[in-house]
Every structure is written in structure tokens, then in C-alpha cells.
Write a structure and sequence with these properties.
Number of domains: 2
CATH class of the largest domain: Alpha Beta
CATH architecture of the largest domain: 4-Layer Sandwich
Largest sheet: 8 strands, mixed
Structural class: alpha/beta
CATH topology of the largest domain: Purple Acid Phosphatase, chain A, domain 2
Helix content: 25-40%
Strand content: 25-35%
């Protein structure tokens, strides 16, 4: 049996207010082709399908169309769990329609699927946190733990634990659930685990929403499934193995979602596996549809030259510009005329401002705001920002006059 492990699609995510939906659509089309070209029997998406609990309609449409293409009317098993960015209710709301296509969506810890026979595989047994499947005449047991926030974890365990037992550490509670679920594993079955959590020692980037909360929601490696042949995790955006001893992997996100993520390749794991045998794991890599670039320039002239040299590239760009004076709006406009998707222009002022005693009565509110903005941001305020400030000031002036 061959499956592909992916996660953290974050469909609908922006980069500093810039939409990434076009890149995500390109990824989805390529991902479907990868799955088809590699004769994948099962697709595992280990959480954070969306970037927010209330995703935009375009993001939901893209996701539903993609997973339906992957499932191919029940020819292929598609298993999806929720991550910390997802709303379990929102994600699993389409379960009645999805299950008709052979798509399994599990929102909460210990969620239960349903027994069903499809064109390409069969769900033989479904119970809390466990699915038993028949894929290509192979027995497959999958234990699942969708993102277990502390509340969701306690809610899942409330019927089987005393108040005293609920005071145990988060990691131990997660471990106890995994140990209980592992009782479903069989010697003649392919045994897999799927979850969305933060494992101690994991290497995060700066675009994940932290779930460890100062260490309280970190899972120790000894509390991970010990008998699973492969554990598919979601949450961390950098592809990595989470345990030297166990086959526990983060697939990483499909796109670069921050400056830090530009330094490593994005991809997924294709896993060929049989009962009682070690999995054969192949790393595949995705296209970088719109790279993130950071340009460090000595002066505005060099920055303008960089913009002109890269004007035909489709990139997201950040600029750090060493300068002895503020960068004028005119120069910022010239940069953006060359290079359209500049995310940030950060001036690095090399000379100190000289202290100047100012008589506040000699300057207008607009001049004072302009000076303050240049001091704080090292560039002049945009025209619309200045207009907004003056609007607010004038309204407050009117309110004061009325009270007098």
C-alpha cells in the first residue's frame, strides 16, 4: 500500500495582507497530479487545512474541489484531520457529502468515522480514534488524534477519568490516549498514526500559530505512538523527523509562509508500506511558485537597481536599505513601479538624528505627524495615511468645539 503524507496547507493564508490563493491553487493542481502519477492509494492531510477557523469562500471552494479530485469518487482514500488553525465543526460540516466521495474528515479527538464500502477501498470498522480499512486487499489500521487542545483533550477523556487523573500533564494524557488506541493495532495489519501536535525538540518556523504555550502543550517523544510503523504529524512547517528512534514525521507546509521558511525546500512524504515491514519513505518536493526574497541594499540607488534587475520575476520581496536619510514616497513609488509585490521596505538609518528643539506652535499637526512618522518608521507617511490622520484630527477638533 502506498500513501502520501501532507499537512499545513493553510488555504486562505495571506502574506502581510497579500493573498496567496493563486499559488495555493497551483499547488493543489500539482498535488493532484503527483498523487495520480505515483498511484497513491491513500492521502493523509494532517491538519491545518485552512489558515483560520472562518476561511473565505474561495479557500473552501478550492479545498473541496481538490479533495474530490483526489478521492475520485471513492477510488482513493482521503483522510483529513483538523489542526489548531481549523474549526473542527466547520471542517467536518461537509462530512455527509464528503463521505459519499470516500473522504474521511475527523474534527475532534476520538472522533468516529463510519463503516462504508467504496469503489477503491473499504472502511471495515470505525470507532473512537480508530479506523480499520481494506486497501488493495491489505489490512490497514489508522489511529487518529486531531489537534488536542487542552479543553478538547479533557472533553474527550471526561467519561473515563477522575478529577485527579485529569490533573496529569498534557503530554501524559496524550500518551495515554495513544497507548489505548494502539491496542487496536494488529500484527497482520499496516499500522499508522495521524495527529496534529508539537513534539518536544521540533524545529518551528515563525509562521505557525504557537500551540505549546510556554511548554505546557508540548508532547514528549516517549508519549508518541510506539508501535506505529509510521506516524504522520502536522503543525510544524519545516519538513523534519520528530524522533530518531521512531518513524514520526512532519511533512511541512506546501508553500513558504514566511521569510524564515525560504531557506528550506517544501514537499511531502510518499510512503510504501507492508504489514510487519519498515516503511520505504520517499521525499518529494513541490514547486516554489512565488519565491520570497530578502534584499539587503546599501542605499536607495542600489535598491532601485535591484528592483529593475528583478522586475520580470514573480516574487515576494523584502528590502532592508541602509540609508542616512528617510526614504521618500517618490522613491518608494519608483521601487514599486519596477517590482510590484514588495511586502516590506525597512530603512536602516546609519546616522543618528540630531536633537532639535522644536516650538510646537510653529508647526501644523500635519507637519508634526510627518516628523514623528519619519522618526519612527524611517520613511515618509503615505498620502492616504496623512489624509486619514488629518481627518481624525479635524473630527476631534469639531467634537471639542461642540462641547465648548
Amino acid at each position: 500500500m502506498k500513501f502520501i503524507h501532507t499537512s499545513d496547507w493553510h488555504i486562505g493564508k495571506n502574506l502581510e495582507g497579500h493573498s496567496r490563493l493563486e499559488e495555493q491553487e497551483k499547488f493543489c493542481n500539482d498535488f493532484v497530479k503527483i498523487v495520480e502519477d505515483n498511484d497513491i492509494d491513500m492521502v493523509i492531510i494532517a491538519g491545518d487545512v485552512y489558515d483560520t477557523s472562518n476561511p473565505p469562500a474561495g479557500a473552501e471552494t478550492l479545498f473541496y474541489k481538490t479533495v474530490c479530485r483526489l478521492a475520485n469518487n471513492g477510488q482513493r482514500c482521503v483522510l483529513i484531520i483538523s489542526g489548531n488553525h481549523d474549526s473542527p465543526e466547520r471542517l467536518s460540516a461537509v462530512t455527509p457529502l464528503a463521505s459519499e466521495q470516500g473522504i474521511i474528515i475527523l474534527g475532534y479527538p476520538l472522533s468516529v468515522g463510519r463503516v462504508e464500502k467504496y469503489n477503491g477501498y473499504e472502511i471495515v470498522e470505525a470507532k473512537e480514534g480508530c479506523l480499520k480499512l481494506n486497501i488493495n486487499d491489505e489490512k490497514v489500521t489508522v489511529i487518529t488524534l486531531p489537534y488536542p487542545s487542552e479543553k478538547r483533550l479533557n472533553d474527550a477523556m471526561k467519561d473515563i477519568e477522575t478529577d485527579e487523573e485529569l490533573q496529569r500533564t498534557y503530554s501524559k494524557k496524550v500518551g495515554d490516549i495513544f497507548r489505548k488506541l494502539e491496542e487496536n493495532f494488529e500484527d497482520d495489519s499496516i499500522n499508522l498514526a495521524v495527529s496534529h501536535l508539537f513534539v518536544m525538540g521540533g524545529d518551528p518556523s515563525d509562521s505557525e500559530r504557537q500551540i505549546q504555550l510556554g511548554g505546557s502543550l508540548v508532547v514528549d517523544k516517549h508519549d508518541l505512538p510506539q508501535r506505529a510503523q509510521y506516524t504522520a504529524l502536522g503543525h510544524l512547517h519545516k519538513p523534519q523527523k520528530a524522533s530518531e528512534r521512531l518513524n514520526v514525521y512532519y511533512s511541512g507546509s506546501p508553500l513558504q509562509y514566511s521569510k524564515k521558511e525560504r531557506i528550506y525546500a517544501k514537499g511531502a512524504n510518499i510512503v510504501e508500506i507492508k504489514a510487519k515491514e519498515k516503511p520505504v519513505i520517499e521525499n518529494i518536493y513541490f514547486n516554489n511558485y512565488k519565491p520570497i526574497e530578502v534584499f539587503k541594499c546599501n542605499g536607495i540607488e542600489e535598491a532601485l537597481q535591484v528592483c529593475e534587475e528583478n522586475k520580470d520575476r514573480d516574487i515576494w520581496s523584502y528590502f532592508e536599505i541602509k540609508t542616512e536619510e528617510v526614504i521618500s514616497q517618490n522613491n518608494i513609488k519608483k521601487m514599486k513601479d519596477f517590482l510590484k509585490d514588495i511586502v516590506e521596505i525597512k530603512p536602516i538609518i546609519s546616522s543618528d538624528y540630531e536633537y532639535e528643539e522644536v516650538d510646537l506652535k510653529e508647526k501644523s499637526m500635519g507637519q508634526l505627524f510627518n516628523d514623528f512618522y519619519k522618526f519612527r518608521e524611517k520613511c515618509e507617511p503615505r498620502g492616504e495615511l496623512m489624509d486619514l490622520f488629518l481627518n481624525i484630527v479635524s473630527k476631534e477638533g469639531e467634537d471639542v468645539d461642540e462641547t465648548n
